[in-house]
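Changelog-linked ticket: adenosine-5'-diphosphate example.
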Amino acid sequence: MSIEIRNASKRFGDFHALRDVSLDVDSGELVALLGPSGCGKTTLLRIIAGLETADTGSILFAGEDTTDVHVRDRQVGFVFQHYALFRHMTVFENVAFGLRVKPRGLRPSETQIKAKVHDLLKLVQLDWLADRYPAQLSGGQRQRIALARALAVEPKVLLLDEPFGALDAKVRKELRRWLRRLHDELHVTSIFVTHDQEEALEVADRVVLMNSGRVEQVGSPQDVWDHPASPFVYGFLGDVNLFHGRAHEGEVHVEGIRIDSPEHRELRNGKALAYVRPHDLDIERYSPGASGIVATLSRAIVVGPIARLELEPVESNPDNPGSGTIIEAQLPAQQFRDLALAEGDTVVARPRKARVFVEDWVSP
Ligand SMILES: Nc1ncnc2c1ncn2[C@@H]1O[C@H](COP(=O)(O)OP(=O)(O)O)[C@@H](O)[C@H]1O
Ligand SMILES: [Mg+2]
């Protein structure tokens, strides 16, 4: 079932939790809502579910306005971060719950319930836990049971609010792969909330980046990574260094370095912000006359194949309010070893690639 959100706004007192949010989710799609804590993800999900109403705007399911449709009748399944299973019920009874509370006429027979619950437990690969109680399960198992329970009533829409947020990193990674495979089997229209960019980029067909109650960008994971629509999106999707410079006829000058920026061909001598990912900085040992940012290697962390460097710019550039802050660089560990650098040595850093935003862009 497709979902359309049309100009939804929501205030709590004077606080704008959502500002004019519009979004289309296609039938069968898995979309991630991604953004920092407090940006309105849960509020939007609760409005879609019917647990909360928008002050203005509307939500359409399969083209029909849902305003007057009760939560119970929206055919929505939920999984929350701390969705407590019923502690006094076995796994089997937890999953059967939604079927047992159906109105008499719609309620399946006991035999049908049994078959359905076992099918669902097989689907989440936990059939063997049917007689256990929630306290006897791991966190990851509990969330898979919560998902089976949500699926029992055959929802048309599945809403997942940071379902793996409370689990440790390794389990989270396993579960998101598992969720993706499950989605490919079931094709239930799903909205997955997370503040973890890696999780969103790995799981979703499309990613919706939210910031302060607004949608900043919607696109495929590749799209938003390659073509971030705003400095916020660029900064949120990965580690980044920010340099101040000037853009002039398609070239940006930052710390004495020239970077091509054809998309700003029209601009003459404007202020520019250059965002550089740590792995897009070239590092070499300092030699007099070398162009680039001269910095002291203050710390080098070499773990496995990657060396992470912290650099302190040597002389602060008065044009650049950003200088004085630590620059992060990343390079292959072998390349770092070949440079034979020690902490305290002086190096030169040069952006190989930058994403340039001209200053008047800064979001409203
Ligand atoms: N019922 C409420 N009453 C007052 N403020 C709320 C309520 N629900 C959410 N908020 C506020 O709205 C903002 C967005 O919340 P939320 O949607 O939970 O963000 P997210 O899920 O992205 O972390 C937060 O600042 C939160 O404190
Ligand atoms: Mg939330």
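Closing comment: Example verified and attached. Residues 12, 15, 17, 35, 37-43 surround adenosine-5'-diphosphate (ligand 1) (CB under 6 Å). Residues 88 and 133 are 7 Å apart (CA to CA).
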